[in-house]
């Protein structure tokens, strides 16, 4: 059986890391596409030359031609610009919307059967626009954010409790922005919900609130430290987890930006929700019940995403 083909649209910081991880995990052959001449070719060659040491079997190719992504099983989209210190993700909307148009058309023409994972920010609006431009089925187009935001939350919790990250299950809902909703009630250590751990004296409510806020600001914290761009190791690792779930039909339960058709009260748009990812793409949305406080936070986040979608429609008439 031929190896799966993984197309990476955007060969910048995240794209290069995705290629390295996909090759090391032997998920398939990798095509790196970018408009910056030489960048995808250089990264593909550099990673391929690490193969003899690592011992992986995967071919890597860099290109400026969409024809080279033909028949891709998975497309991961990072094309666009990242934010710099002082910028919000929403400041990227105008530039990245144009990029989504060319990427959506490139995927539709060359890899219409692919499972598409968008990472470009502002995430929830860009994945919506990418789906509109590509015309692919909604269950085959999703956005990576929840795995990363939950990973950040889990990391901070494991440090606070001094326990293995493997035993922390963290859960973040809503749009990938300042309004995201880290759910304290649905996050656990070995099945014990966080509110119970506060009662047990493992932490205080104040410390937990601070961790929730640090999770919301997790992207900005890295942007502030790096100064020249945004996070890329954890975002790439998170998207690879989703791609692997699809390619290996793992039926993983992962939070991601998925198209909601009434689930969690959301109609006709993308927002971060728990999903099941397997060979059918987004096979199911886990339709959890929220309490009043969670619902208020979630609604607030959904409204922020709606505002960005309206802004997209205002910029590009074909989306209206
Ligand atoms: P960067 O290293 O700048 O890479 C972006 C690449 O896109 C560059 O190599 C560009 O040449 C390329 N590019 C620009 N326009 C096009 C085009 N039309 N077609 C093909 N390629 C193009 O950025 P990065 O890799 O650090 O980040 C990529 C995106 O991911 C940004 O929008 C970030 O804001 C976003 N991001 C999202 C998350 C989430 O959790 C959702 C996290 C981190 C970054």
TrEMBL record:
Keyword tags: NAD, Oxidoreductase, Tricarboxylic acid cycle
Enzyme Commission number: 1.1.1.37
Binding-site positions, substrate: 83, 89, 121, 152
CDD domains: LDH-like_MDH
Transmembrane portions of the chain: none
Catalytic activity: (S)-malate + NAD(+) = oxaloacetate + NADH + H(+)
Gene Ontology MF term list: L-lactate dehydrogenase (NAD+) activity; L-malate dehydrogenase (NAD+) activity
Residue sites binding NAD(+) per the record: 10-15, 34, 96, 119-121
Biological-process GO terms, alphabetical: lactate metabolic process; tricarboxylic acid cycle
Domain (Lactate/malate dehydrogenase C-terminal): residue spans on this chain: 148-310
The Lactate/malate dehydrogenase N-terminal domain, residue ranges: 5-143
Entry annotation: catalytic residues: 176 (proton acceptor)
InterPro entries, per the entry: L-lactate/malate_DH (IPR001557), Lactate/malate_DH_C (IPR022383), Lactate/malate_DH_N (IPR001236), Lactate_DH/Glyco_Ohase_4_C (IPR015955), Malate_DH_type3 (IPR011275), NAD(P)-bd_dom_sf (IPR036291)
Functional description taken from the UniProt entry: Catalyzes the reversible oxidation of malate to oxaloacetate.
HAMAP family linked to this entry: Malate_dehydrog_3
Family: Belongs to the LDH/MDH superfamily. MDH type 3 family.
Protein name: Malate dehydrogenase
Organism: Ruegeria meonggei
Annotated gene: mdh
